[in-house]
Amino acid sequence: MKRMNKVKSLYVHIPFCDSICDYCDFTKLLYNDKFAKEYLENLKRELDDYSPFFVETIYIGGGTPTSLPYDYLAELLKMLSKYSSNVKEYTVEANPENLNPEKLSLLKEYGVNRISIGVQTTNDEISKKINRGHTFEEVKQAIKNAREIGFSNINIDLIIGLPNVTKSMFEKDLENIVSLGVNHISCYSLTVHPNTVFYRKNIEEPTPEFARELYDFAHEFLAKKGFVHYEISNWAKEGKMSLHNLTYWNNENYYGIGLGASGYLGSKRYKNFINIQKYGKVGFIEETEEVENKDLRTYQLLTNLRTIFGLDLEKFKNLFNEDLLVTKKNEVYELIKEKLIVVENNKLKSTYEGMMVLDQILLKLI
User: Fold this and answer.
1) Closest CA to 98 of 25, 31, 18
2) Which stretches of 121-183 are assigned E, i.e. beta strand?
């Protein structure tokens, strides 16, 4: 098995939020000045341990990175600046209510060129019910401010299947977001995790049928608006696909730093401590996994078939010494017949229908 070890991407986790959303299962905690100061000190130590020079993408996620006060946000960007000189895509996640012109100017100054805004719904009543801290007017203002300061690459996150959201309400969400002229939209189906308010309230996830109905609408509606449905949950205008996320979907190596962050270096996957009292004090990494060849094969199929670019059969053959069209000839033929995959230009690609039932494809090929 041959592995490419060039690490092109860096993920940085900022766990702080001004409020905790009812559905959220990410590693997060309410903003605390003392914790934030110590956290940034520990984060710098972990960052410099890796010294991730020559990365091509940086993604600061959370939590809510823009919940950091101006001075701490400046400190974070400054510590990353010596590693960001060759970066093609530099993304920061934000919430509308704390994405003010001062912070936007600071992000611009340090080379950030992509903003990902958590909106989830444009319905103010629903937004309030799930403990989001903004209105749709604030979303519009945040995007207006970002544009005026020079940001042209903006993503919006939406959730499919929030409680009490009808199909017509979701359609209105998409219409509202498209009207703002953004060039990337992510739509994630609601998952109810333990240890969330939704879980304690016995909120139910959307039925597979309803979720599919909403995805079908998004797929057709956004195509008419010039968006390419390039990954199961992601749509982009031409040239605006997320380079950072394509690192994950191409099953390539990346650094992950910060509380609860995951990384993938060489043939090792690792996950950091999620307890802020342990992170940086007893170390950074809580668990590691040596990825065996059979697992790497699974990851390659699982990640590559999520996108319209598909699985490069020549690359697969070089990595695993396996011609998939020979070893899985019957299965591939069946999947083609069912219109779940196509084979073109020596690539095996999921159709839209295939993306929606990816598990069925994987069961046959794994």
Assistant:
1) 18
2) 154-160
pLDDT at position 124, please? 96
pLDDT bucket at 3, cuts 50 / 70 / 90:
very low
Residues in the chain: 366
Encode pLDDT of 189-246 as tens digits.
Answer: 999 999 888 999 999 999 999 999 999 999 999 999 999 999 999 999 999 999 999 9
Closest by alpha carbon to 257, among 45, 89, 84? 45
* Judgement on whether residues 53 and 178 belong to the same structural domain of the protein: yes
Instruction: Tell me if residue 114 falls in helix, strand or coil.
Output: strand
- Domain tally, the chain: 2
- In terms of domains, do 222 and 351 share one? no
In 3D, which of 145, 147, 77, 151 has the Cα closest to residue 113?
151
CA-CA distances (angstroms) from residue 232 to 171, 189, 290, 354? 18, 10, 27, 10
Asked if residue 284 is part of any domain, the answer here is no
Question: Cα–Cα distance between 26 and 98 in angstroms, integer?
Answer: 19
| Domain coverage including residue 323 | 297-366
